[in-house]
Amino acid sequence: MDFNSGLVIGRVRGVAIRVHWSWVVIFTLIAWSLADTVYPDYEKDWTQNQYWAAGVVSSVLFFASVLIHELSHTFVALHYGMQVPSITLFVFGGVSQMAGEMRSPRQEFFIAIVGPLSSWVLSILFGLLWLVTRDQGVAVVFGYLALINFALGFFNLLPGFPLDGGRVFRSIVWGRVHDLTKATRIASTVGQAIAWMMIVGGIVWVFFLGIGGLWYVLIGLFLKNASEQAYAQVLLERALKDVVAADVMRPPPVPVPEAWSLQQLAEDRILGDAERAFLVESIGRVSGLITISDLTHVPRARWAETTVREAMVAATEVHTVRPDTSILEAMRLMQEHDVNQLPVLDDGRLVGLLTRGDVLKRLELSALVGDTTDRGQQPRRI
């Protein structure tokens, strides 16, 4: 699942808050189940509109609780100097995208533990609101939110990496073995074991208790996949931690003039050089960047009359990296800004071009080689 996709609905301390399309599905299901099944069992005299209003409000407040849970991770991570490009709400809740590795077991412990603690604080607050309003109809909403936040905190503390509890578990193991890769492998193994228990338990539930067990199967499958990917990510980050843009970049292609037509660019350079991106120059200075993607935004019938200058991305809007920028950081920039290439500048001087294809090729080679120092394992594809 691509957590960099989705609609940005706001920013908090520079962190983008995204809503993935799958969130709409679970938001609707929660509102519908509360309005159609749960609340009618407690409030017999409500109208259909009241049931639906309570269901929608409850779903909104539940996901606000999930957002607060993720923001608590984010604020502690920012306190430790980590970068957090975005938070994404999706079908299984929320996820904070953090750039870079944890620097110490202590740092990971506090970043992870604050999430469940925030959910339990919310559970207590909603519980107090339930006590205050227990003789009113709205109490059922507060009661639901108190229970669901308590359950959210408890579920996230399961030692299934990469859940919060799994990260707490990894931080403890890391503190004992003093090896992040080994600690991640152990935490990932435990996480996959918990995922399999959820999958098997969900299947048994479906056969004996009803279709509700399918949800546990889906969560188990998601957790299993996330655990495997998290371990693979750590292996790659370890293998590539010393690789920088200068090691992967290609020489910059000869710039194209601003005055060229898109037709001339396509015929003389794209087809001739088999490149996908070109720097644009004006009076001996780089003025922008143009890619095949930029061409596709212009109807082919207008290529002959449209200049490169009209279709390019201006130099002031082009994201760049330095020769000593980690390629992991470069890849994060590409994903965050949805670009396929980054010019490499050294003191303002263009020295190369880093493309997504070159980075992925290096990532693939590192994955094929693998981390053979860990348990003496054989190289494998990740």
Distance between the termini: 16 Å
**Mean pLDDT over the residues:** 84
Biggest sheet overview: 4 strands, mixed
State Rg. Answer: 25 Å
Low-confidence stretches: 371-382
Let me know the number of strands: 10
In spatial order, strands of the major sheet run 1-2-3-4
The helicity comes to 55-70%
Number of domains: 2
Determine the structural class based on helices, strands and strand pairing.
alpha+beta
Number of helices: 13
- Helix and strand element order: EEHHEEHHHHHHEHEEHHEHEEH
Strand residue percentage: 5-15%
Q: How would you sum up the global shape? A: globular
Describe the structure concisely.
This protein is α+β, with helices and mostly antiparallel strands and 382 residues long. Helix content is 58%, strand content 15%.
3D architecture notes:
With 382 residues, this protein is α+β, with helices and mostly antiparallel strands. It folds into two domains: 7-240, no CATH class; 245-366, CBS-domain, CATH 3.10.580. The protein has 13 helices and ten strands. The chain has helices at 21-42, 48-79, 105-132, 139-156, 164-177, 180-208, 213-240, 245-248, 262-273, 292-296, 308-311, 327-337, 356-369; strands at residues 7-12, 15-19, 83-90, 93-99, 256-257, 277-282, 285-291, 313-314, 341-346, 349-355. The strands form three sheets. A four-stranded mixed beta sheet has the order 1-2-3-4, sandwiched between helices. The chain has a four-stranded mixed beta sheet with strand order 5-6-7-8. Strands 9-10 form a two-stranded antiparallel ribbon. Strand 1 (7-12) and strand 2 form a beta hairpin. Mean pLDDT is 84; it is low at 371-382.
